[in-house]
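#random but structural
TW: two for the price of one
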Amino acid sequence: MSLFARKNIDELQADAFSEGEHSLKRELGPLNLVSLGIGAIIGTGIFVLTGTAAAQHAGPAIVLAFVFAGIACVFAGLCYAEFASMIPIAGSAYTYGYATLGELIAWIIGWDLILEYLFGAATVAAGWSGYVNSFLKDLGVILPPYLTNPAGELVQAPGSDTWVRKTEELTQSLAAQGVSIDSLPQANGGFNIIAALGIFAVTVLLVTGIKESARFNNFAVAIKLAVVAAFILAGGYYVLTHWGQSMDHWTPFIPQSTGPGAFGFNGIIAAGGVIFFAYIGFDAVSTTAQEARNPQRDMPIGILGSLIICTILYILVSGIMTGIVEYPRLNVGEPIAVAIDATGYTWLAPWIKVGAIAGLSSVMLVMLMSQPRIFYTMSRDGLLPPVFSRLHPRFRTPHISSALVGLVCAFLAGYYDVSELGHLVSIGTLLAFSIVCAGVWYLRVKEPNRPRPFKTPFVPLFPILGILSCVYLMTGLPRIAWERLFLWLAIGLAIYFLYGRRHSVVQRTHHQAHVDTPPRPTYTDEK
């Protein structure tokens, strides 16, 4: 059996438009798809990781990190748009890899996407809990730190009542400000119950149906965009009226390097890698291709539209935030709230927190929506057990896999720190994007005349640039992220060879075709 057996693209296209009890409902239009993309992209990147990436890696040059990550995403997004319009079926990069590079590569992508979405949703939930906990404090509800933080040592951030994880990076950052970390209040985390409950609530919503989930997402995205716009307007006005102070905060724009991944140009690349997983929204859009009403037209709109809008917003927010507050003070779970408090516009702070809660809720929803659909497709291909492709008889959603994903994700969100999860998600996302770019290039060479409703321009230049930029951002991530990635892939390969390869529908089809093909006659010279 061939490890690189490919799916037939014509059969995939036929299956994409089939109707029946085992088919997903086609309910999503172009606005829904753009909204889903924004729902996944605008979230932890703006509301949480912008602050930590600036404080620990890039300083005010966090703006350049978003620019570089956005450029890498443009190349990958164009490749995604070509595949999504040509193969409009659930499964995203997994399906694209199966149709171009073969089963083994598809399995690696699919297993990698589990890392991307499962750990990504847990990362978002950890950030979401910070804003919920801060909002509860405003209402007078004080929860102990061991119920609102994962296991580990905690310190109270200077000038704040926020508890943050005690790390070597934080120790060095505070020392540079003349603050000894041992002089700060100490505590221990236990289990982040708020994050776990958030995942549970979103999972229940997802089981009830795609239309209901999309409506909730549209509502949450509207609130989120309104709050981000309010921050840009209010924060931008503050920066313009306090220009001298903002220039001081932006100087030096690229702080001098203090070590690998800590400031300097290398720090910008490290920050780009850290915040990159915030851009997986257009990948999430492609997982819903089988639920789009007109995927050939609408998928490119959803992918590229959400990418362009969000990149502009990221650059504006990060620039304004570092202009308002000195970047070392942004190493907290709710940096936008800290920035607004620094402006004196205290009336806006509660609304910022509400917007962050709504915004991060939509990110959790999109990520937890995407993961079961990856399982759904892999299960229908025989690479995972049939239970993962079972649909609810009434809601027509993959309810069992959604529930299992929700349980595992709730545990991860409650037990692990946001930075530990974020590095894993970023490196997995970058790997998946690189393979998609390679797939577009390969298929253009292999099947140049195949109809493509949307075509990536300047092939092979753009796919090559996509691969190089993604790999370059991967090099900026810490060694521990690479080690965990290789461990995760090793576990996945073991599952593939022990189960997936033996039950693969494509392998059985290829084997049967080989058996049914009569042997070619052989001829010998007769004397």
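TW: number two ↓
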Amino acid sequence: MADFPFSQAPNGAEVKPRKKIQFGVALEPEVVKICCYAVLVGFVGGLVAEGLLELIYLFTNIFFYGRFSFAITNPAYNHLGLWVILIPPIGGLLVGIMVHYWEPTLKGHGIPEAMEAVLFGQSRMRLRVAFLKPLATAFAIGTGGPFGAEGPIIQTGAAFGSLFGQALGLTPYYRRVLLASGAAAGMAATFTAPLAGILVAIELLLFEFRARSFIPVSLAAAVATGVRIYFVGWAPLFPTPAFRLTSMNELWLFGVMGVLMGIIGIAMIRTLGWLEDFFDHLPVKRALIWSPAIGALALGIIGYFYPQIFGTGYDTIRDMLNDRLPANKLIGVSVAKFVALVVSLGSGTTGGVFAPSLIVGGGFGAVFGMGCHHLFPHLVSDPAFYALAAMAACFGGIARAPFTSIVFLFELSHNPNSLLPLIVCVMVADGFVRLFSRDSIMTSKLVKRGLIVLQDYSVPVLMRARIDQIMQKEFNSLDADDELRSVITRITPGHVGVIPVVEKDGSLVGIVEAHDLLKVDPPDHHFKMRELARQDYVMAYPDEPVDQVNRDMLLKNNENIVVVESHESHKPVGVARANDLLQLRRWLVQEETRETPANGSTGK
């Protein structure tokens, strides 16, 4: 195998594109049908998001205000006094009963369960999840749970996409696409943020960036956003002032704040992991029932002193982004939300971590901005600008979804001037968390179960090379009419390569290997090579991607490859075996490390 860059053809030869226009070359025609399915999934996902939010409002009104109403209300404004402490345990007990008796995957914030279905369950989710998850979430948040609705909405949308794919008899891959479409629809419809919905599906569920998946997902997110706009209009969920940097010198402050958000993110990941272990090993019978109630009781006590932690906290986020809270209030609410979130989620109840992480990051970010404004009054413009960037950095760090976070807060702010600080702060926070934490808040639970989850992905090396870059160009070939007794004198038993058998005009008939010649008894039999030639090989063309050839090998269960001139001429120009494909890993070794492969070369 020659040593040359991926972007060049062997010996500097230019690969000429095919002139014939073909349908379905770069995108499978089946994707058109999948897009139609994704549009339907997106529509249902939009309705699911709206329905769950309405259900949360209903339960909030019932439990905190004693009225049957779907009006948007904030549990922080209740007048229950000490009795408010007993409200959250009601929801915790109801969720615990549902988790214990009906569906264990209701426990948690939703996205890890969807990730597990994608990576280890062939994208299959159960019917009961689609019905019980929104109900359990409505009970948890409606009784004061310090969660966002987005995680459960994402899981519910994903469940519908998976169920729809199962009903249609789709392959596991296209079930994954519909599952991710439902998840993207849920995120987009919750916040009127279609781009964030697309990216959350790509970063946390698809683990790829390919047209056949992101096109359907994008359409689902767009349709779900349209459903959201139909119900509530175009008004942003979190309106903000027109933030602007005073100068480029201010960017370094956002970088420093990114480190602070990274520290907070690591603390959140590790504290939640410890509390999950603690509640899982509580010495009480039927811990799945009682643990959420115990955690909710702690939530009620915290909420008595800081009622702003109850519910989704959207009002608190708006206050942070508009400089309406003093520093002491910002710190108190952020710390209380941090503790309430990890205790409630660690105890086994259900709810999303997106909105709570915005409050935790936003409070500390706003205080950081206030401090910087006091020290550098001419450099810092608006402390709320720091709250915005810190919100994105906090979630980006704990979820390992930096692009989702950047785009999400950019969409919420509707402010192009926020983009550069968002990038700096989020990327610094994400990098800091990765330096000290192998797992994210989305994967830690799965890793504890012994599952391997990698959120980093790249183009597979098999898709970055053509078969003519790894084939053996020097090989033996045999005439189809050659007799065995003449051939055996020319081929040594030690030769283990693939030997093409060809006609007089050079066209391929089949293959033999050295050991095939020794199987015929007696060896001087008048066998001709065309009688001995085998058909267990994959025929490839020089410009074919190695990934496509490898796929054909798997489908045919063959490890021998014969590369021929073209579709018209089946004259062999090279041979390869499965082991030659594995040598491509050497390219990655040389790209990513300074080490040289054991044999000191890059190929044959």
